[in-house]
Amino acid sequence: MSDFLISIVAVVAVLGFMILVHEFGHYAVAKWLGVRVEVFSIGFGKRLFGFRKGDTDYRVSAIPLGGYVKMSGENPMDERTGDPAEFLSHSRWHRFLIAIAGPLMNIFLAVFLLTTVYMVHYEYPVYLDTPAVIEGVKHDSAAAQAGLQAGDRIVRVDGIENPTWEQLQPRVWLSPNQPLTISIQRGDQVFEKTIVPKAVTTSEVGSAGWFPKQPVIVGRLEAEMPAAKAGIKENDRIVAMDGSPMGSIETMIERLQQTKEKPVELTVIRGGQTLSFRMQPVLSKTEDPKEQRYRLGFLNKGETAVTKLPFTRALSLSLQENKKYSLLILELAKKIAQRKVSLRAVSGPIGIAQDAGYAAQQKGWTPLMELMAGISLNLGIFNLLPIPILDGGVILFLLIEGLMRHDISLRIKERVYQAAFVFLVLFAVMVIYNDLMKTIPGLAGRLP
């Protein structure tokens, strides 16, 4: 099956399941509280088949992207009959529970999926847990301009003391073209520096231009590129280039820009054997459409550790990770609203399809489960934003009405919903447009 078809199947399955779980949350709580559910649909559009049980039509519809729940009288513009089974006939507390149930189901699912992954096959890059000691600095980068050097240790950033690389990276990514103050330890001295991460790649995330020590281990190879042609294989460990040790993939990338098209010799460890391969770099596109560089054509996957955690530790770690990423999502939304981060940092259905297709082609099912956990968390947090039409908007109206002790007029609600609908349509158009702009030039990941 082609990469395109795998991506299409994967994104339909992943998004469909995420939205279905979300809608089931609304459905289950509505039924529990006595609200009449008229339709529970898997998919959108024309009804294909199904059955009726009680007041509910359970159906499968033509467009297999999620689903929806239709409750009696849930639309403020619908005519109200006073039937106690209608959504708006119930107390604000009941309506609040129904509204929040969908996002909570997505958040619970994210916690469940990550807990399962950590119990079965917890794989993570080793360097992420190590102190943020700089292995090298890219020429003409923000770090180089600030005078940072190999061997410097970052001991403070954005209020975080002695950060690991995992803690440091999001601070940089979320600060494109924005000053970021850090404390550096060099020998026995500690001093402050201010760097301005450059906006890089099509997502325009921040990059300081420093990099950690991380072994070069070959991941996915590009066909018809020098590495594949020379006989390099996945999981080969590249320890030297032209006799010089390779401490990180960035070191190799920097060296290739210096040697340009001059043939290079790689020293590789494969299954306990030391092998040599000679190849000629080629000038090729990268993950940034504005940049070309000399490359060999493989993805570096670095060194990873694999373990299994007992249930209590897996659950604890899953809760920690979901909390951390929830805060990062909210910070990203805040910085986008402040125009400090580009909207290009947000992926839409095309970007999700690419990620889902790549995860589906990895060995085992845990990469896809991790991606599903991330998407489910994003969906849950996004729906809690106080935007009318979204669940967070319904909750906001309920809170305002509770403080006012009376309902907001239907005329005001209608105008607000119309404006919110236009906003969400424009937002979706912008996200899809950015997806297309990022996809057309071609994304190559971290490609040496």
The span between the termini is: 27 Å
How does the helix and strand content classify structurally? alpha+beta
Total DSSP E strands: 20
Strand content: 15-25%
Q: What's the assembly state of these chains?
A: single chain
Radius of gyration (CA) equals 26 Å
Question: What characterizes the major β-sheet?
Answer: 6 strands, antiparallel
Mean pLDDT: 87
**Molecular shape:** elongated
Number of helices: 11
Helical percent range? 40-55%
Please provide a written account of the structure.
Helix 2 (92-120) packs antiparallel against helix 9 and helix 7 packs across helix 9. Residues 441-447 have low confidence and may be disordered. This protein has three domains: 3-120 and 365-439, no CATH class; 128-211, Pdz3 Domain; 216-290, Pdz3 Domain. By secondary structure, it is an alpha+beta fold. The strands form seven sheets. Strands 12, 13, 14, 15, 16 and 19 form a six-stranded antiparallel β-sheet that branches. The protein has a four-stranded antiparallel β-sheet with strand order 6-5-7-8. The chain has a two-stranded antiparallel ribbon with strand order 1-2. The longest helix is centred in the first third of the chain and has 31 residues, at 3-33. The chain is elongated and about 80 Å long. The protein has eleven helices and 20 strands. 42% of the residues lie in helices and 25% in strands.
